[in-house]
Amino acid sequence: MSRLLRLLAAGLVVLVLGHGSARAQQPDTAAAPSSHQRAGQGTGVATLVDWPASLPQLLREMGTKAPYLLPRIDSLALEYRYASNDSTSQWSFVLGWQPDHRVLYEGDILPAEEGPTDVRMANVELRVEVQVNGESIGDMIVAVDSMALRPLPSIYSFEVTVGHDRVFLDATPEEARRALAEGVTLDSLVVERMGFTSAATSTSERRRPDVKERRPAPRRGPSVYEPRTRIFIGWRVAPRPYYVFVDEGKRTVQTRDVSDENVGRGATADGDSRARAARRGEGAEEEDETRRRSDDEDEEEEEDEPSLRGPALGAVAAIGLVAYAGGTVGLYGRGDTPIGLAAGYTHPRGGLQLHAAVNGAVIEGESGQKLTLKTLGFYDVFDARIQPAVGLGVQIDPQREGDVVPSVSLGLAGNFGRVVVFGGVDVVQATPEVGIAYNFRYGRTND
User: Which domains does the chain have, with CATH numbers?
Assistant: First the structure.
């Protein structure tokens, strides 16, 4: 395995930048990455190996929330290069991955040769520890929201320019500026989100006698692994876009492609076009044509994905009616759908609320949309203002198998008369929930 990792890192260096490589692994690995820094500049390679540690354990823990397609990663390399000034830093990334011999597909763990063919990485979100002289100063999010990356030797390259106030989580602009000037190293990759697609059915399905010979099925929506184990407080607070480039006051998301696998929307800063041309080499026109065809396919897939804006607007209308009838209205949010409203009826002995929340993709009309609808009840069991609360509802996620999954909440409601505060956790989705509402009919319900 160590020999494979050395070959992987060396291969990326030869293919792209031709400089020395380094290694960075999950926290349970012993080897530390090496990197090269000058004043305000640095390069290195962070790698992830043998992920996830156990597909059977992941399947047991996630149950119905497990993705329908997840190849085990033998090795993933993220090569990085940065240069900083007083206010911003420019980052260049090169991503490559290699699958292991096993794959999770439709609830079964199969040998890779029996799984679906033409597996591609569709999106990725990595959390990486930022170190200065071996000491951690915070985390950084590196993510691409849409691509079609085959295993090595295919690679994906993208670039970003970001201000010091946004580059690292849990670091002030001055701390980030000093760290970048001194030289930072990226270490300990953690997968926060990773999606894959495939165009063909598995070999085991094709071998079944009851499965008729047919053309390969069209490429399905991405199968996304998303553990939802942590909520980040920092500059990357929305799932999309990951990197935003501001040009003359307009927010844009731009693309910097390197090969015919780089079908995606990563935000990039202006860079050296000559370096890009050198990386592309001969056959650029053929690659551009392949990329345009892939872009057309991605646009067709996005058009086929249903929009939740209509149901969300209907939920907002229902919230308004409930607020008018019940006299209580407020805000509600949770880890996976943080933007929402609450309305209902409140009495000193308890109350009932209707919750509706969406993620940012619904508002922006992008893929990955989610809508949560729930009814929450709380009651004065202990003759106190802090009252147990239970919620039942559903979450609609077109990208998930089955589209609709149950949502069950347990928590506490602080019933303070005019103000009701709710905090709890969705035990099915394993995500926290919060809410605050105002009872504008307090004088009548207090009798």
Answer: 2-304 (no CATH), 309-445 (2.40.160)
